[in-house]
Here is the input.
Amino acid sequence: MSSPRDPYEHGGGPARREAFDVVVLRQDGPGKPSYWERHRVAYEPDMNVISVLQRIAANARTAEGKPVAPIAWECNCLEEVCGACTMVINRRVRQACTALVDRLLDEHPGQIELRPMSKFPVIRDLVVDRSRMFETLKKIRAWLPVDSYLDMGPGPRQSQDNQELAYVLSKCMTCGCCLEACPQYVKIELQRQPGETDEQFDQRQKAAFDRGFLGAFAIAQIDLFNTNPIGEMTSRERLDALVAEGGIQVCGNAQNCVRVCPKEIPLTRSIARAGRIATRHVLKRWFDR
Amino acid sequence: MAKRRVAVVGGGLAGLATVMKLAELGVEVDLFSLTPVRRSHSCCAQGGINSVNGLTRQLGDSEWRHFEDTVYGGDFLQHQPPVKEMTEWAPRIVDLMDRLGVTFNRTPEGFRDQRRFGGTLFARTAFAGATTGQQLLYALDEQVRRWEVGGKVVKHEFWDYLGPVIDDRGIARGCVAQDLVTMQIRVFPADALVIASGGCGLIFGRSTMSMACTGSAVSRTFQAGVRYANGEFIQVHPTAIPGADKLRLMSESARGEGGRIWVPRKPQDPRPPHLIPENERYYFLEERYPKYGNLVPRDIATREIFNVCTREGLSVERDRLCVYLDVSHLPRDVLDRKLSGILEIYEKFQGVDPRQQAMKIFPAVHYSMGGLWVDYARSASGGLEVGSPRNHQTNIPGIFAVGECDYQYHGANRLGANSLVSCIFSGLITAPGIVALLESLPGGAAADQPSSLYDRAFREHQARFKALLARDGNGENPYRLHEKLGQIMTRAATVVRHNEDLDRAYDEVRELEERATRCALADTSTWTNQNLVFTRALADMFPLAKTILKGARARDECRGAHYKPDFALPDVSATDPTERRRQAEAWCDRFEENNRRWLKTTIAVLDSAGEPQLSYEEVDTSLIPPRPRLYGVVGGNLIEEVWQQRQAARAAKPVPVG
Here is the structure.
């Protein structure tokens, strides 16, 4: 054992399986047709869907041996904190990094099925355009409008209970699982019109996003910022967004969101609180007129 | 006057801190990132952020002691003025993050709670659950979004920085970048360029770093002429969960709460760990370091785990190196109350409950102390001159570097929970210096430069892109070459380093570099071509890989994370008191001799053939004199005594006036 070797190399080990199939719903670009493709992947211990996609990229051949371009997908941290690698795996939306091959094959022996999220425009293969979520964060003004970044001492003191409530909401990683599962969240995918500039297209798209449903993640973020002692001071502008077109009134209370959230954020609790506050806000606005 | 713009590459803590401060100071910014900035690698930091605070202050802590712990932990390799300034800002930085909404854990009275971390006696570390980095990142991401809505910031997410634009006078005038969706290449004129692209862990194949941490932005800047410093200093964290795709961090707090590291005495004992009786378990850290036990300093724990698996052949598994980290003996309420966050990570990724069964862990590449060389302006009080454009500026005028990709704060070894503070600090200190630079740009603003400068840069990168796209057919596979590079680097340049191995690795990396020029693309499309982007990033790993290897080969000593057993100072092991004394004196002689030779910053530049050339620069240690770092050294008490006597004798001697 004295010769150095790669300490992370997996050997054969007691492999429970030899190989398995991965079927992927691919699409070469926006507006292009989608198609299924089958890949065969050699089994290794401790695999997740990320490592499956890495092996497929290195191999770049279908199960039938046909050379193909590697599958495009999005990922970064691989620890389920960045939110990048969301996809629909065996018909359930989740993070590819925590989707363990052993468990997937226990659920559905022999085959793993991968699809892109359906509520966002496909850019290529499993990569979708989730910029609408970040636009929503602008719309709901999801930040604390501090006076400056100069030294003004610490923030306000807070109770342990408050911190615990806020922390669980602030773990939201903008992954989009709650939106994929939501019956009220509808895909917005615009086609570029002839002669339209980039800027015109962006404006038109932003306007369409603004009219669309905020989604559970954004309602929870409003809850987070409006219960912060500094955020509370500007809660009215976030409440305006909450009751505007595409606001909380669109929620159909299906409660799918809370069941698919990988961070177990109590989304329905935020929705219930926001619902009560929204009613008061609308009435108050009406009386203040 | 033409409008001034600044380009920032990278949207982790350092990049975002730079952007928000620049925006507040009225500067318009283009921000480039491979991912949406909210998904940057900073989100992986678990432990917390260090600063002296109201509580520790009353126990004798101070900014100075935080400064002292940082340079001692870093084995005195960092210039001291920037570190002093950072530790002075640290409490204000934590206050600012508190105001920005970071959900720091609280005490029953509502103050921020603090925990203790490695390398200090004080509970300096503020934390937000087990995801402090994520929470800090979100606070800064939100502030930058506010400035985006305010029209000061334009984000370019899913863009790959290809390199700086440098004019004939050697001044940076902007950068070239590529949209990773449309593959369109564009030139962005800018009056200053800030590189904030993080570490380069992917050079080691798998590490604790995120997939964006290829080091490509740094390498492209290095290839354009910016110097790279202390590349050989790579921190290897003792406990990570080996995975097929990534090595995930298992926080030190598992051992802090009583977790024990062991291997079966019988090599590769096939029984499950809970069925191996106590007397057949080898608690090697506890046996070898009775005083520190499982909480020996990081570099020592890392080396011992590595040795027990490689040299002694006691790895738990035959085909993969790992040891047990066991918390299954701890009371259930301790596990649930204090460790649930990190235990869930293990359970989620390994499918095994660590409350029931020992975890399998192994060290992993974690952080790069080295990085792009940057300057600083020392103030009269030994800190930094706030507002000087020299702060964080590289040797190319107009190019700055901040965060993990600069080399400034952590010397030969980084203390836990110091990285978050260094990232935010470097952004906040750099912004006012850039504003000063913008007021007196040599040769006018970027917008006033001849368009030929930008056209030339565009054509050059466009041609490279086309050439890469044209490479199809039966060439080398970039993913396999990357795997190979990771194996070579992990083998030769991580925990234990030997000159023969480093020499061989250098040759092997050069061969791989040559093979990588013949990589074939499996994808030749001009739409979201990840295959091409990866192949390009792979090519840019080689200059940094060679710099790490060459720096490590040249540095014949042990310092912090850089450990060469052939050059370790001998233990004080004699039993006879006179001989012991002689050994301790000899130890101190060698220590001083070694510092004269090696207490220096390694500086690398790339020559025209693409080979790194090294030189050395003195380190400013004028505030805290270097002293032996004696964690776990046999005979350390006597060495300490001899060292103190020498210092006292020196202080008593009259200093020659002149």
User: Anything to note?
Assistant: Chain B has a mean pLDDT of 94. The first strand of chain B starts at residue 5 and ends at 9. The two ends of chain B are 50 Å apart (CA to CA).
